[in-house]
Design brief:
about 15% strand, about 260 residues, about 60% helix, four-stranded antiparallel β-sheet, rod-shaped
Length: about 260
Amino acid sequence: MLGADPYAISTSDGHRNSGELRGSMRRIERLPARLAWALLVVGLVAAPHALAGRWQRGEAEPPAAPANSEDTTVGNTVAELQRLMNNRELTELRTTYNGNYGASLLFHADSMNYYVALFHEKEFWRVIRTDAVENAEALYVTFADQTKQLAQVYLDTVRLQAGKAYSEKLVALNERRLRGLQQEVEQQRQQSMQVSNAIQERKQQAVALSSDLRATNTQLETLDKQIKALQAQQINPELSLPPAPVVAPAAAATPAAELPAQH
């Protein structure tokens, strides 16, 4: 925020205005009574507006607010600016944004006043009114520079949040990749176990088949021998007779017993 009031009180202007007022009063004294009273009434009516311009330029102190009033100079200016904006009575001359902070230079053509505002997310922080274009431009430059300083933390926060979000996105992506690789490795492990079990079964089957093959070969060899033996007998021209049965030698003949005489 600004550290000092940009409007300095001009002493020479104050003396000049006082001299002009005294000269006007002397001229009024020379005029006829009715005309003098008319001029006096006009002067009283115009005096608040003239003093208001001097308050805006910092050439006179504003009247003190009542003790129970909640309005302040800044509050009044902010409310006034808001009212003029709502009524669309302002022309936007310049606006600077830095992050969510901004500064604007606005012009009120009806009063020829400039409003310089410093705001944050459409909330006015500081509003200064002036009728001097040089002061308005200087204030706008000051407020615009302040938005750079105020927005630096905001910009750093935006960058850090973006970096954090990007890192979290990468972490989530890598976690998904890790889970995918873990699932793939688990599938490969299960497939390897299945292949290993299949190979073990094939080995056991091969051992069993090998035993069966050896038994079959043994049986085949036995049958082959029998076949060859039969074939050898088949092609033998000699008649092979079965061996004669062995007969026991006959007993010695005994003399015939004498037959009894027949009577």
